[in-house]
Amino acid sequence: MSLRFPLSLVVMLLSCALAPPVAAQTRIGAIATNFRWFGPDDRVVVERFDDPKIPNVSCYLSRAETGGVKGGLGLAEDPSRFSIACRATGPVTIPPDLPKQEIVAFASASLFFKTFQIHRLVDRQRGVLLYTVISTRLIKGSPFNAISAVATRVP
User: Would you give the DSSP letter of residue 67?
Assistant: First the structure.
């Protein structure tokens, strides 16, 4: 008797095992945008992601979430529509060993293959942390993106 694993299961297990440590997300709320007769309504979801390496920085991500029967079962693919706003909630300093670019958080946008990733970039010359959210797929990502900046010092 041989065991056969679907490719999607293997990819999911590998992506979970190889994923970098990310910030915990907190769902702030959701706003219904489109009524569905069957299943939950389409909505805009607002989540907070705290930067795991930079104390006092929180990013708020709003993104579209597909409802309906597929959405209710977790089988729908959410559209690549999102916005990000990052804020300093206290004093912010850039650690000297902080990488120039790093993935700090992600949210799933489909059952297996699509995620929204929040990347942190560092502009040491200006003392600014840049956060960009992008949509990715296993094979092909999306050009849609959004950016937010957090100053660490006032000139």
Answer: -
Do residues 123 and 130 lie in contact, with contact meaning Cβ atoms separated by under 8 Å? yes
The answer to whether the CB of 80 falls within 8 A of the CB of 66 is no
Angle subtended at Cα 54 by Cα 84 and Cα 103, rounded to the nearest 5 degrees: 55
Question: Nearest to residue 15, comparing CAs of 94, 111, 99, 132?
Answer: 111
The boundaries of the domain holding residue 50 are 21-151
Show the tokens assigned to 124: 């040491």
Overall domain count for the chain: 1
Whether the Cβ atoms of residue 42 and residue 36 lie closer than 8 Å to each other: yes
13 located within any domain: no
Position 147 in a domain:
yes
State the DSSP code for 135: E
Query: Consecutive sets of 10 residues in the chain, 155 residues long: mean pLDDT of each?
Result: 47 43 69 74 84 93 71 58 89 92 74 72 94 74 83 75
Residue 145: strand, helix, or coil: strand
